[in-house]
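User: Fold this, then the next.

Assistant: Folding the first:
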Amino acid sequence: MTGDSFLQLEGISKTYPGVKALDSVSMDIRVGEVHALVGENGAGKSTLIKILAGAETPDPGSRIRIDGQPVEFAHPLEALRARIAVTYQDLSLFPNLSVLENITISREIEEGGRVVDWKEMRETARAALGRLGLEIDLDTRLADLSVANQQLVAIARGLVHDARLLILDEPTSSLSRGEIESLFRVIATLRGEGVSILFISHKLDEIFAIADRITVLRDGQHVGTYPKEDLTEEQLISLMVGRKLRFIEYEQNPIGSPILEVKGLSKQGNFADISFRLHRGEILGITGLVGAGRTEVAQAIFGRLVPDRGEVYLEGQPINVTSTAQAVEAGIAYIPESRQSQGLFLGKTLADNVAVTRLDTMAGRFKIIRIDRLTEHVQHWINRLSIRPPYPRMLIDQFSGGNQQKAVLAKWLAYEPKVLIVDEPTNGIDVGAKSEIHQLLRDLAASGIGIIMISSELPEVLAVCDRILVMRRGRIAAEFAREDATQERIMNAAILDRPLKESAS
């Protein structure tokens, strides 16, 4: 049961050069409630989180109160001391440090200069992981964990501060269904203990499953705060985007001849005996639980992972891809799951990111890049993919997740690939941009490109894909023609050990 307000925000504004990220936002978070914060990318959610975390200072006139008392955070440590802990979408972890060090590092910094009691730190870390139902060797290097377990370690780090407000920014983006259910049980327990949760997610089914109230931001302004019972999913979308969205409905494109064939592809410890065909104009979905080997198969096709055995054929000809450069040269492009760490050059402009794969075509005499050619190239892709805002010299970091994803797509589409592999293409993308990405993929397939789409979101798979492979424990457990596929059949194939009847490819 939720109680009085723990946190009150009054007239919160934040202005950057040329941009008003937040415009007089007022809201409150009650003791022991799960409060969802939603909005399109660019609505101001991240800025608000940074202000609450002490990483950004709001404009003069903004007021923050805790238990009715005014507070100011000039540094993240001050927010931690106020028992506000944040788990960011990008995790902000240290891959070369141990699990123990990642969980307790903020405690070490907070205690500044004191001799570290590692026995106590171990007990604290183990207790935090235990609240998440997770057993991990504390001495394990973080980089050796799956992305899903790294996500849980980031959440555990927030718990060691005995937080009164735990801010979870897209906490389920890399979790399996079972792990999400486990996290939701933890959230329910914390809620019962009086901990407030600010839950940020683009997954509306999660919002309605876990939230007590929902606050909507749009264009930096507070649209409203609503009990979840007062909203339908359609109403919430309308409040978020302020416009009518056209959601893609499955419509099969003409399917051409086979363009890619994989035979018996295996990599010990990752996947085994993977065989399938991809046709021109087809979107082939690969789904399954986190850890099933989906990404590893994609990386093997793209040359990031060298398989132990197996064959890959492109347009009927065998290819031996042992590097990403060879894959690109052959006509295979790969959009990774993590666009920020693997797909983009952060700190560089939109133009730098879009043009990087085709600089060879923009050089004039003496190998000097011609600005006119570069500008024309970048503008072409801005227009074709509707990248917004259309500012080539704007830093890629300042674009929304959806427009960053379009930039990654532009970079590889400029190579005119025959096969495009997209791994979780709408991860961390708002509902409006997701609809755009889905339509873009369908349009690309209609142009004759063969597309492999890896996705954990079953509604997405069913809306976009022509054929669906389900992986379980590193093997293909089932194959469904689109007309035979349902969420229930896919999940059964992903979870159950008994074989299911497969459709013909």
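Now the next one, as you asked:
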Amino acid sequence: MQIPYRHLEKIKINQHQSKPTGSTVDAARCLLLLLPKKPAQRDWQQLPHGAVLKTRLQRVRRSDPEASRLVTDLPNKAGTHVILQCMDPADSSFAQLVQARELAAKIRAANPSALLVQLSGLKGNDARRITGHVLAGLLAAVCPMPGFRSKPDKPAALKRIDLYGLKTAFDPEPLRAELTGNHLARWLSVLPANRLTPGAYRRFVTGLARDEGWQMDFLDTRALARRKAGAFLAVCQASPAKDAGIVHLKYRPKARGGNRLALVGKGICFDTGGVNVKSAKYMNGMHEDMQGSAVALGTLLALSRMKVPHPVDCWLALAENHIGSRAYKPNDVVTACNGTTIEVKHTDAEGRMVLADTLALASRGKPHTLIDYATLTGACIYSLSSRYSGVFSNRDSMTVTLIEAGRDSGERVWPFPQDTDFDESLKSEIADTLQCTLEGEADHILAARFLNRFVASDINWVHVDLAASNRNGGLAHIPTDTTGFGIRFTLNLLQQQQLLEKSWN
């Protein structure tokens, strides 16, 4: 299985502190111009044919006073195609990323091999922030996605971006690493279930680990049986392929030291619902029920490419939830590897089952912080829509930080409560805990309370319920329905919010 996760390495980003010459503009096929919300006269003077562009934008604003975008051609011999965008530095990261996605779509339609980007009137941190958001949209838009048509879609031609008007150096490599991780996550998530089986997934990760210099272990069903991982094994026992298991990847920086991070991802490559089988409407799209694992893997790839000084462990719970004579059933009682007994109530709540054992195993390494990702509950989508994802933590002190990381990154999240009295709903008459309830009330909160049992109390834990994993038309700067949500958020948590440098107790 060949996945072009190295695609973005081929795009050159060149920075020029001066404005482009007339000959440079005339040679350009496509030009993106970025200005403040209310450009001054001097800002227009810095642009090629600035007076003409100002007049044309004014003409557009006669019918729409709030218009901030102009799409036109320059009155030069080449007829250079121009997209002009007035950006408001006061806008949120999410709003700017949405604008970046829209701009990228206009540019993608022209499909240039080279793009000239010029800023005028945008200065300092505002200029750098807007540049980062626009580049994020441009890079996300040109990442190829899986396709199986007999006549493939025409690939994006973009190979070079020339950036003018940014006075201080902008390092694009962290952004490139982030978008490479996001591309990987989206690509894997879109693959059909017959192409991305647990076995195929493991084989791909094996090659990726070799290429990236990660250590890798794989716990197959026999190894999991020795570790008494009964919750995971219950889910996969009906699978005829016997290819389920837990992948453990290790990134170790050359310089020793730094607090350890653990990433855990739900990797259900297809979910039938099990004995409580899904209807056709809700079974469609269940090949993306592994997106949590793809986000964990994409985050690891981004952190590795950025050469972060912290050791990182990544755990991928790979399985399918099948129907059949050996499938686990409601009212079964199984024992997880930490000794917790679980009474099964609904076989379509398999995600929390595979995560239970995976979280318990990840906890044994005593990481400073553990973050898990999962397309876990419909209740979270009902609560937040597909615009936000839900976050849960065993540290109340993290609440504001999680919100700020979402706002700053543009991958917005909202925290839900973790009060212990919710555990009353998960009391079992015959086991330590119910897997879930059948009433459906606050299932996203109850799922988090269930998972909390499998994370050691001295570990800082964040659970991300990926309500925003799929949204029609894309989200923020991502143009595809499958969003890869969570990677950008996590990087902000680690870099801007310094998650691993704080105790959070």
